[in-house]
């Protein structure tokens, strides 16, 4: 697994960064109520995807864990909360770049060879599912929150910058022997609680520019993926996994699934608190997490994640068969 906080099970825990979830209330519904560093009240999509594939219940982080041989044979996550395809994105918040995640994969492969032998390691990687989820932080944080890019780039040209990063990253993963990559598109970033708060006016409506950026990126990245898949000599099948529509439905009509709060997180006011600002030592946490689509102002609850991953599987599962 490669990407950002949606699929980071704790790689950021020992970094010098504010972007961490290894403190309560994160993990409040995890086994043993442990704040592992997952940015949710429980499981995150990487765990749920591993369960869908009948591989295992939890995907361990690459860092901060003593892996068993079983962990390595079945796969790990290299993801780092708040990273992105724009090289500036991880720099601003001091997290792990996607390039560094690929270097960690190279280390991982060497360890896999050490325990299983070259031939078996090759067979495992050959039959593995590579899951890639990033891009939200590029749009929400780097483009719309900091001054570094918005002054130089309009939305279409910033999307082009991200696509350069995506193309480079997918080619690098392919070159490392991946045969099947699931590539997650962007959610409706303007409907995430923190973005409603900063951009949605008094009524905290979904913010249209952020959603436009996400939709433009999604349509262009699908063209890019189709191009790669058709390219002679590109030996990997990349499957685009759209999450925009299901998250839009949850954020605007969550009552259908029994959610009563779709625009605020569970931390404090629910308007802006995330990572180090979402901390149960300093603020109240909502009583009934199961009624909330979002746990903090940026990340869904485990229950919402389950609905999102179920929808992803119902829609694209048939394309993920080897």
TrEMBL record:
Pfam families: Lipase_GDSL. It comes from the Eukaryota. GO terms for molecular function: hydrolase activity, acting on ester bonds. PANTHER family: GDSL ESTERASE/LIPASE EXL3, GDSL ESTERASE_LIPASE EXL3. Belongs to the 'GDSL' lipolytic enzyme family. This is GDSL esterase/lipase EXL3. It comes from Aegilops tauschii subsp. strangulata.
């Amino acid at each position: 697994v490669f990407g950002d906080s949606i699929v980071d099970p704790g790689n950021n825990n020992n970094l010098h960064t504010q972007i961490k979830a290894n403190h309560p209330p994160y993990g409040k519904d995890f086994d043993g109520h442990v704040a592992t560093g997952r940015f949710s009240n429980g499981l995150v999509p990487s765990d749920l995807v591993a369960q869908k594939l009948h591989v295992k219940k939890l995907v361990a982080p690459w860092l901060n864990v003593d892996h068993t041989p079983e962990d390595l044979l079945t796969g790990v996550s290299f993801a780092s909360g708040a990273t992105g395809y724009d090289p500036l994105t991880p720099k601003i918040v001091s997290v792990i770049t996607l390039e560094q995640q690929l270097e960690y994969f190279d280390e991982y492969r060497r360890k896999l060879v050490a325990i299983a032998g070259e031939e078996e390691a090759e067979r495992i990687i050959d039959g593995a599912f590579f899951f890639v989820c990033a891009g939200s932080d590029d749009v929400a944080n780097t483009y719309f929150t900091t001054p570094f890019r918005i002054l130089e780039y309009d939305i279409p040209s910033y999307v082009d910058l991200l696509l350069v990063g995506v193309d480079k990253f997918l080619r690098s993963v392919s070159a490392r022997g991946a045969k099947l990559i699931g590539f997650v598109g962007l959610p409706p970033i303007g409907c995430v609680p923190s973005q409603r708060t900063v951009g949605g006016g008094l009524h905290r409506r979904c913010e249209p520019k952020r959603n436009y950026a996400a939709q433009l990126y999604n349509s262009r990245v699908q063209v890019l993926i189709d191009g790669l898949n058709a390219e002679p000599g590109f030996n990997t099948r990349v499957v685009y996994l759209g999450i925009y529509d299901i998250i839009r439905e949850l954020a605007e009509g969550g009552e259908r699934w029994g959610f009563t709060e779709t625009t605020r997180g569970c931390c404090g006011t629910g308007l802006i608190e995330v990572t180090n600002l979402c901390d149960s030592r300093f603020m109240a946490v909502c009583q009934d997490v199961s009624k909330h689509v979002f746990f903090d102002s940026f990340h869904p609850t485990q229950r919402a994640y389950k609905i999102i991953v179920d929808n992803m599987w119902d829609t694209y599962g048939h394309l993920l068969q080897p």
